Amino acid sequence: MRSGVKPELLAGVYDLKTQRIREEFMYSNIAQSMRDHDCVLAVVGYIHLGVLARKFEDEHIPVEPFMFA
C-alpha cells in the first residue's frame, strides 16, 4: 500500500471459478486431516479464510481463525 501499487496488481485477478476449485481442494484436504488427526492447523490467505471457515461452520466443525500481520 505504501508503494502506491494497488493490491489486485500484486495478487492478480480473483477468478471465481478458479478460486472455487482451489478452495474445494483445500477444504477436502483439511477435512481429511481432521478425520485422520482430529485437529489441523491450516495456513491460507485472507480471502480463503472466510470461505473455508464458513464451509466448516456449516458442517458444525469449530473454526478458530487467527490473522498475522
Topology record:
Elements lengths: L6 H5 L4 H22 L8 H13 L11
Give an overview in words.
The chain starts with 6 loop residues before the first helix and ends in an 11-residue tail after the last helix. It is built from three helices and no strands. It is an all-alpha fold and 69 residues long. The model has no long low-confidence stretch (mean pLDDT 83). It has helices spanning 7-11, 16-37, 46-58. It is globular and about 45 Å long. It has one domain (7-58).
What characteristics describe this protein?
69 residues, mainly alpha, 3 helices
| Radius of gyration of CA atoms, rounded to a whole number | 14 Å
Beta-strand proportion? under 5%
Order of helices and strands: HHH
Shape: globular
Major sheet characteristics: none
Question: Which structural class should the secondary elements be placed in?
Answer: mainly alpha
Rounded average pLDDT = 83
- The DSSP helix count reads 3
Q: How far from one another are the termini? A: 14 Å
Count the beta strands: 0
Total domains: 1
Please provide a brief summary of the model.
With 69 residues, the chain is mostly helical. The chain has helices at 7-11, 16-37, 46-58. The chain has one domain.
